[in-house]
Every structure is written in C-alpha cells, then in structure tokens.
Amino acid sequence: xxxxxxxxxxxxxxxxxxxxxxxxxxxxxxxxxxxxxxxxxxxxxxxxxxxxxxxxxxxxxxxxxxxxxxxxxxxxxxxxxxxxxxxxxxxxxxxxxxxxxxxxxxxxxxxxxxxxxxxxxxxxxxxxxxxxxxxxxxxxxxxxxxxxxxxxxxxxxxxxxxxxxxxxxxxxxxxxxxxxxxxxxxxxxxxxxxxxxxxxxxxxxxxxxxxxxxxxxxxxxxxx
Length: 224
Description:
This is Maleylpyruvate isomerase family protein. The protein is mainly α.
C-alpha cells in the first residue's frame, strides 16, 4: 500500500470506531462483542492500547532493515494461554474506569493523536514495536487491519452502527488475502466484511463453502 494511503487508511479506521462509540451510553458500552468475554468497553480499551502503542512506536525510530512487514508481523501471535491472560487483564483494566464512558473519552483523545502522528511520520522510515522492526507504512497497515476487524467485533449487538470505512477495509482485506496465500477464491456471496469475518474465524465456514473452497478451506482462519 502507498505510504500516504497507509496514513489515510489508519485515520479512516480510527474515525470509524470513534463514530460507533461516540454516542453510546454506559448501558450500550456493556453490550457483548464478538470477542469472547469482552463487552464493548473492554474491546474499546484493547483498541485504545493499540492507539497508545502506535504513538510509542512512531516515536521509536530504528535502524533498518525491517524484520517483519504488514503480513509477516501476524505470524508472531500464536495465541494460547498468553492470549487468555491478556484478555482477562484488558477486561479488568477497562473495569477500573469510573464508568464505561471513561474508556470512550480516553479513546477520543488518543486515537486522533495517533492518526496525526502517523501523518507526520516518514513512511519509508523504520520503527520498533513488540520486538520487531517495521517500515512505518507497514506498521500503520497492521494497526489498520486490527482496528477494522475489531470494529466488526464491536458492532455485533449494535445493529444501527456504521461499518468500517472503505479505505481501512481495503487494507484489512489485502492483509488477509496475503495471509491466505493469495490463491484462495473469495466466494461470490461474500462482501468485504463477510470475507474478513470468515478469514478471522468470527464466522465459521459452512459445508457448502468448504466444498467450494476445497483444499483452501483448511487455511481458514488466518487471524484470531
């Protein structure tokens, strides 16, 4: 993805989440999401942590070359007990706010700041995060992909909420296509969001879909 497009896509992704949560009351912020055990406020706290990490990473220049790119970055997250412990920590941390809307207020301050920092960063430069070195444009694409997937998670029980924006969605779709190997045929009945939900295991493949995909069905999901 082009460097300027990476910045625009991240802003699109974060703006989309902001639109979803801006007017939610504390009751709505306690609705369920697609992430097991997490309410809307819990999941928003997780994405807030990403936006904070983006700010830190963009202020953490590194010497190249990159050790991972926007696709291979995802190979370093095996899940398991560590993921369960993190999920519990995030839920307890979100619950420490005086009210669920406190998470929204901190998100509203942090996400735009991360988007502005992304716009000012040298897209060809290198930064470090989580023990990796990435080109700035690739870093932004990882944050965009995660934000889009979690946007879809957030709106499970919010039927009137808007979907992720098109610029951000294109980045997320490109990421899962690359992770799936590029040869997988996307079924004709799937829109971009259907595809993302299946590629990330949010929606299971039905038997007719498995038959159509053939041997490629075994590659699903590619992200948790």
